[in-house]
Write a structure and sequence with these properties.
It contains 30 helices and 35 strands. The chain is of the alpha+beta class.
Length: about 850
C-alpha cells in the first residue's frame, strides 16, 4: 500500500484500527447464532444479513472431495489474493495466502470454534501482517462451510530494503561521460541512497546529478576516477578502498556498459557493522543464508538456519544448495535458480532435507547481493511443514468421519463406484450393507451423548477388525454405518457375513466398567440384480434395513422388489401431499361432542380430510404420518387452526371447537404464535377453542413442551388428553399438567358391554376425572347400550356414529337444528 501523503496515512491507520475491532464483533455474532443443542451456527445466520463493509473482507471456504475451494470472495479478499475468480482451489492461489487460509480453516474445523491466526505475506519484498479469523458454520446441504475474515493489521514494510537502509552500506549509480575521443573522462551521479550520501559526507541533493570532477567528496580524487575509468573500459567489476583520513570506505563496483553500480561501505567502525549484521542477519529468528550465485555454495548462514536445519556452521559452509535438496527435485530447483532475477519469491513450496534426514516444506524469499566481493543471493526461509500437515488433515477430514475416523459417506460412495466399475469386466457381484444399531437411542437418552459417542467409536473398532482388503466400512451419520464387500460375493456369503457381524456388534461393550448392550440390524443389496449404480444399491440396501428394523431388529434382510414398490408409493404420496396443500385439496369435517347430562351438542372435533383428485378421500391414518415426516404438518396444522376457528364463529356461542395437535408442531416452537394468530384472525374467544394432544408430546423435550402447554392455558384455551389410557405412563402426565379434559379411547368403549376389564377401566377413568375435576369424553360411541353404560359411570361427554359421523362445515347448521329439535321432543 503506497501512502500518498500524511493525511492519507492517518486515514489508513484509523481504518485499520476500526477493522481490527471487527474481530470481536464477528466472534460475538458467531456465538449469538449458535442455536441450543447445536455445535455450529447455520451459515446464513452468520454470513448473510447486515455485514456491511465486513463483507468485502470475508471469503467462504468449502470442501469438495477433500479440496478446499474459495467461493464468494469479497472485494478486499480479491485484491489480497490478486485473483477475482470464484470457485477455485486453494492450490491455485499464492502459497502464502493459501497456507494461511488452510491453517486457520483446519483449526476452526477441528475445534468447531472460531480461530484467529496471524498471516505474514510477502509481495515484491513487502511484508504485510494480517489477522485471519476463521468462522466454522453449518451448511443446509450438510457438511461445513468456513467463512474467513482477513484484514491487514499494521503497516507494511520492505524487509530487504529495511536491512540495507539500517546498515552503513550505501548504494549509488554513476553514468560515464565520454570526451570527444569517445573515452570515459568523467562520471555523473544518477542515483544514490542515504547511506551513500552519509558515507560520502555530502547531502544527497548536492550529490545527485553532480559530476565527480566537481569535487567535494572522496570519489572526486583523481586516482578514484582513474580506477572507475579502467573498470568501464574493461567492462568488469572490482573492489577497492578509499582512505580519506578519518574515514575508510570500501567500494564494490559493477560495470554495465557506461553505467557503474557502486556499493559504498564504511570499513572503519567494524564493531558497528558487526552489530548491524548480527541484528539483521545472524540473530534474525528466521533462517537465512547467503549462497554463491555461480557455484551455489553457502557463503554464510545465521544461527536460526544452523539450529533449524541441524547442520553445524562449518558443515554448512562446506555444502552447496543441492545437498539440502531431495534428489527428485534437483532439476526443478536448478531450473528455478536459472530463471530468477534480482528479487526472488517462491512460486511454490519446496522440500529441504535437514541434517537428520527429515524433509520439511519451505517457502523461500531472496534478493541478489554482493558478499565478500562475490555475487550471491540473500535468502530467507519460511518453514510451512505444519501448514502442509494441516492441509493433509483437512484432506483426511474431508474423507473421514470426525468421531470414529471411519470413511465418510462421500469416500464410501467413491469406493463403491470403483468396485462397481471393476465388477462388470469380471462379472463380479458387489454387496452393499446398511447397518443400524438397535437401542442406540436408549443409550443416548439414559447416559448422555458423550457415552453414545464412545459407544460409536467402539463399534467402529469392531467394524475395522472385520472389514479388510478392498472392502470398506464407513459411518454415514448418527448410528448408521455402511459396508461394501467388493469381492465376488454370493447371497450365502453376504448372509453369513451379516449374521457374524450382528453377533459381533451385539456383544456387550465395557465403558468405564459399565456394560452397555446394543444390537444391530442390516439391510443388504447385491449388484447387479438389486442395482448397477451406487445410488441404486445404497437406496435398496436402506429399504432392506427398514424392513429388518420393522421386524424387531437384530436380523438382516435382503432387498426385495416389493420394498421398492412401497417406497415408490411413499414417494408418490409425499409428492401428492405437497401438491394437495398448494392446490387446496384439504378440507375439515366436524364430529359433534355431546354433553350427556344436558343432552346437547357442546362442541365439534375438527377432523382433517384429503380429497385426492384421482383417488378420492385418503384416510388420515395414511397421510398424517407422512405429512409429519416431511415437515408439512406444521403448515398444515396452522391452516387447520385458522380454518376451524373461523368456522366456529358461525356456531352458537356455547359451542366449542376441538383441534388435534401433532407432536411435530411442538418441536417447531411456533405453536403458541400460531394459536394466537388463528384466534386473532377469526375473532373466536379463546374459551371456545380446545386443543387435543397425545401422550407422545411428553416423550421428548418434556420441559419445553410443558412450557408451551402452560402458555396456551394462559391464553384461556382448553387442553385435552386424547386416547387416554393407552399409554404406559398416562397417570404421570396428569401430575405434570392440569388437563381440562381426558378422552377415553374407543378401544375401551367398543367392548364396554361385553368385557368387564373395559368397564373397570372406564369406571376408573371417570372416577379419576371427577376427583380431579377433569371432564371425561368417551370416543367411538355407536350403540344405545354403550351410551347407557357411559352415563351410568358418570362420563361427561360422548362422540361417535350413534350421534353423527364427521360432517363437512356446510352441514353443521342442519345438524345443530336437528339435534335441538330431537332434544325438545324428548323433553
Amino acid at each position: 500500500m503506497v501512502v500518498a501523503n500524511k493525511k492519507s496515512a492517518k486515514t489508513s491507520a484509523k481504518f485499520n484500527t476500526e477493522m481490527f475491532a471487527d474481530v470481536p464483533v464477528l466472534q460475538r455474532k458467531w456465538q449469538a447464532a449458535v442455536r441450543p443443542g447445536e455445535k455450529l451456527p447455520h451459515y446464513e445466520d452468520v454470513m448473510l444479513g447486515s455485514l456491511g463493509r465486513l463483507a468485502d473482507h470475508i471469503v467462504l471456504l468449502r470442501s469438495d472431495d477433500g479440496v478446499l475451494r474459495v467461493s464468494h470472495p469479497g472485494r478486499y479478499i480479491q485484491a489480497w489474493l490478486n485473483d477475482d475468480r470464484w470457485d477455485v482451489p486453494l492450490s491455485a492461489l499464492p502459497p502464502d495466502c493459501a497456507t494461511a487460509l488452510a491453517e486457520a480453516a483446519a483449526n476452526a474445523r477441528q475445534n468447531n470454534r472460531p480461530y484467529l491466526a496471524s498471516a505474514h505475506c510477502v509481495r515484491d519484498g513487502l511484508v504485510r501482517t494480517y489477522d485471519v479469523l476463521a468462522l466454522p458454520t453449518r451448511s443446509r446441504w450438510g457438511g461445513m462451510l468456513v467463512g474467513v475474515y482477513v484484514n491487514e493489521r499494521s503497516a507494511q514494510y520492505n524487509l530487504l530494503d529495511t536491512i540495507f537502509s539500517a546498515t552503513d552500506e550505501g548504494v549509488l549509480s554513476l553514468a560515464a561521460i565520454r570526451n570527444a575521443a569517445g573515452e570515459p573522462a568523467d562520471f555523473q551521479v544518477v542515483h544514490l541512497n542515504q547511506g551513500a550520501a552519509r558515507l560520502l559526507m555530502q547531502p544527497a541533493t548536492d550529490l545527485l546529478w553532480r559530476r565527480l570532477s566537481a569535487g567535494g567528496n572522496p570519489l572526486a580524487a583523481p586516482e578514484v576516477i582513474d580506477r572507475l575509468r579502467a573498470l568501464v573500459a574493461s567492462g568488469r567489476g572490482g573492489q577497492f578502498e578509499i582512505d580519506s583520513g578519518d574515514r575508510c570506505v570500501r567500494l564494490g563496483v559493477t560495470a554495465f556498459g557506461d553505467m557503474l553500480s557502486l556499493t559504498v561501505s564504511d570499513v572503519t567502525p567494524l564493531k558497528q557493522r558487526e552489530v548491524s549484521f548480527r541484528l539483521l542477519f545472524e540473530n534474525n529468528p528466521m533462517p537465512m543464508w547467503v549462497f554463491d550465485a555461480d557455484t551455489m555454495q553457502f557463503l554464510s548462514v545465521n544461527d536460526a538456519a544452523v539450529q533449524h536445519y541441524g547442520y553445524s556452521r562449518e558443515t554448512f559452509l562446506r555444502m552447496t544448495l543441492r545437498e539440502i535438496w531431495p534428489e527428485d527435485e534437483w532439476a526443478v530447483h536448478s531450473e528455478a535458480l536459472r530463471e530468477i532475477g534480482d528479487i526472488y519469491q517462491s512460486s511454490r513450496d519446496w522440500r529441504h532435507i535437514k541434517a537428520d534426514g527429515r524433509e520439511i516444506h519451505v517457502l523461500t524469499f531472496g534478493r541478489k547481493v554482493t558478499f565478500d566481493g562475490r555475487d550471491g543471493y540473500l535468502v530467507a526461509i519460511v518453514d510451512i511443514t505444519e501448514r502442509r500437515a494441516a492441509e493433509a488433515r483437512i484432506a483426511h477430514m474431508a474423507h473421514h468421519d470426525g468421531l470414529t475416523n471411519l470413511p465418510n459417506r462421500d469416500f464410501y460412495q467413491e469406493r463403491l463406484r470403483v468396485a462397481l466399475e471393476r465388477g462388470p469386466s469380471g462379472n463380479k457381484r458387489v454387496a452393499v450393507m446398511c447397518v443400524d444399531l438397535d437401542l442406540f437411542k436408549n443409550v443416548n437418552d439414559s447416559f448422555g451423548h458423550p457415552m453414545g459417542d464412545r459407544l460409536l467409536r467402539l463399534v467402529a473398532e469392531r467394524l475395522r477388525s472385520e472389514v479388510h482388503g478392498d472392502n470398506m466400512a464407513a459411518r454415514l451419520g448418527g448410528d448408521e454405518f455402511a459396508i461394501v464387500l467388493a469381492a465376488d460375493v454370493s447371497p450365502n456369503d453376504a448372509s453369513a457375513f451379516a449374521e457374524g457381524l450382528i453377533e459381533i456388534l451385539s456383544a456387550p461393550y465395557d465403558i468405564d466398567g459399565l456394560e452397555v448392550v446394543v444390537g444391530a440390524s442390516i439391510g443388504i443389496a447385491l449388484s447387479p440384480g438389486d442395482g448397477t449404480t451406487s445410488e441404486e444399491l445404497m437406496r435398496n440396501a436402506d429399504m432392506a434395513l427398514y424392513r429388518a428394523k420393522s421386524e424387531g431388529g437384530g436380523v438382516h434382510h435382503f432387498f426385495e422388489p416389493e420394498m421398492d414398490r412401497q417406497a415408490q408409493k411413499r414417494r408418490d404420496m409425499e409428492r401428492d401431499l405437497r401438491a394437495a396443500f398448494t392446490n387446496g385439496e384439504f378440507e375439515l369435517h366436524y364430529q359433534p361432542l355431546v354433553d350427556i347430562a344436558a343432552d346437547r351438542i357442546s362442541g365439534f372435533e375438527s377432523l382433517l380430510r384429503w380429497r385426492h383428485p384421482q383417488k378420492g378421500m385418503v384416510s388420515p391414518a395414511e397421510f398424517i404420518p407422512v405429512a409429519e415426516d416431511i415437515g408439512l404438518i406444521v403448515a398444515l396444522g396452522e391452516w387447520v387452526l385458522r380454518e376451524a376457528c373461523s368456522e366456529a364463529t358461525k356456531w352458537p356461542a356455547d359451542v366449542k371447537v376441538a383441534v388435534n395437535l401433532s407432536p411435530v408442531q411442538f418441536r417447531s416452537r411456533n405453536l403458541v404464535q400460531a394459536v394466537i394468530s388463528a384466534l386473532a384472525h377469526s375473532g373466536l374467544s379463546a374459551r371456545r377453542l380446545e386443543l387435543e394432544i397425545t401422550e407422545s408430546v411428553f416423550l421428548a423435550e418434556t420441559e419445553a413442551n410443558l412450557a408451551i402447554l402452560h402458555q396456551l392455558r394462559e391464553l384461556g384455551v382448553s387442553i385435552s388428553m386424547d386416547d387416554f389410557g393407552t399409554g404406559y405412563s398416562s397417570l404421570s402426565y396428569l401430575r405434570s399438567f392440569p388437563f381440562d379434559k381426558i378422552k377415553i379411547d374407543r378401544s375401551f368403549v367398543k367392548d364396554l358391554a361385553r368385557r368387564s376389564d373395559c368397564l373397570a377401566i372406564v369406571r376408573a377413568i371417570s372416577g379419576l376425572g371427577r376427583s380431579l375435576k377433569i371432564t371425561t369424553t368417551a370416543e367411538g360411541v355407536e350403540t344405545i347400550d354403550q351410551l347407557d353404560w357411559l352415563r351410568a359411570e358418570g362420563c361427561n361427554e360422548v362422540q361417535g356414529f350413534l350421534f353423527s359421523a364427521a360432517k363437512p362445515a356446510s352441514e353443521i347448521a342442519a345438524l345443530l337444528t336437528g339435534f335441538a329439535e330431537r332434544a325438545s321432543k324428548a323433553a
